[in-house]
Amino acid sequence: MEGLRKSYGSTLALDGVTIEVREGEFVALLGPNGAGKSTLLQLLTGLFAPDEGTIRILSQDIRSHLTGALAQLGVVFQQPTLDLELTVEANLRYHADLHGLPRSQARRRIEELLERFDLIDRRRDRARTLSGGNRRRVELARSLLHEPRLLLMDEATVGLDPASRKDILNRILQMKTGGELGVLWTTHLVDEVEEADRVVVLHRGRVLFQGPPAELRREGEADTISEAFLKLTGARAIAI
Ligand code: ADP
Asked: Which stretches of the chain score pLDDT less than 50?
């Protein structure tokens, strides 16, 4: 993402934002409410175009190569998006069909992902019967079906109990070890950025900091991310 600007009428939501997510990297985008995180993700998923700036996914410009760029993208939205009346497996199959995966490949990927996310014994259960944490795991498995190279997770732990939050975060952290998948994880929770490779602090549409968590603490002359974030933005970070 390079030089992104986006206004809603007189509100400047993004003011020249440049962020890079490299292969295998876990980047946490930390910002208080109203920072511009959702706007950024809406631009990244091609929902609407920036007023200025460019977005490239594996060197494909999203403006001129939307389909190719989106094929490289996996997304877990903040709002739950499973079809609650379908089984876990049917939700995955439906998504595989949307992405045009050949049946045999879809079957193989679904098996792999059900296994990886400990969902084998829930495969024939309707999504409605699953807990919030398990639903998120299905959404995570679904987002990886088409083997994307960049995974976007939009406040993916909102509404989950602490154990489920930790579980989702740990699974993402494990997944990226040695892999090619880049992850952009948006959050307003400081405790979710401690283990990121890089933290991007977004505030009022501007990037105030970009670097490893330890550097954020150093730069803010702070003992904790929370304190550094407060010094940088004047906004009190939330750490539950
Ligand atoms: P975040 O996701 O970090 O909370 P948003 O991207 O939702 O931030 O919002 C950034 C700014 O843009 C805020 O000032 C918000 O009020 C404004 N905004 C977001 N969406 C709209 C919209 N559809 N119309 C007008 N203003 C909006």
From this structure: 240
